[in-house]
Amino acid sequence: MAKQFNILGVDKCEFGLPGDGVMGVDLTEFTDVEVGSAVIEGSSANETTLATETNDQYLTVDDTSDPTTFNIRLWGVTPEQQVLLMGGKVGSVADGEDEGFYMAPVSKPSIYLSFKITGKENNGKRGVIKFPYAKINAREQGTITKNGLPAIDVTVTANTPVTAAGVEGSPYTKGFEDVV
To answer: Among 52, 44, 39, 49, which residue's Cα sits nearest to residue 10?
Structure first.
C-alpha cells in the first residue's frame, strides 16, 4: 500500500528554538497555510565543466551545492509569531498607541530556528519533514484587498545542525508516522 507514503497537504507547520544539534521541542504551531504554497526544493549539486586546450567538454565535476529549502506562506500570524519569524518586538505600554502591534526591527536579524511540517492523514499515515537547524527568511507579502490577504512568506533553508560536542546531524529528515 504505497499510497500511504505520500505527504498529502499540510496539517500544520511549527517553528521554535533549536536544541543542541537536534530538533527543538518547544515549537510554535501555525495552521493557516495558504493552499499550494508549501514547496520543498531538495539540495542539488552545481556542476563545473573543465576544459582542456583541445576539448571544451573534457570533464564535468561537482562544484558547490545548493541547500534544501522549504517555502511556505502563512495567514493569521499574530504579532508574537511575527517576532519569532522576523525579529522586532510587540509594542508595549511605553509604545503608546502601538501597544500590541508588531513593530519591525530597524535592520533584519539573522534568525535560525527548528522547523517541522506535518501533513494531513493519508491511509493511516502522515508525512513529517523536520529541519532541526534552519535559516529563516520571512517577510510580509501580498495585496490588501477585499478578496485577498497578505501573508507571511517564509523561506526555510536547511543548515547542518552541530552539537556543542561537534557532532553533525542531518540537515533535514522526512518520514511517515502512524496516525493514532
So the answer is: 39
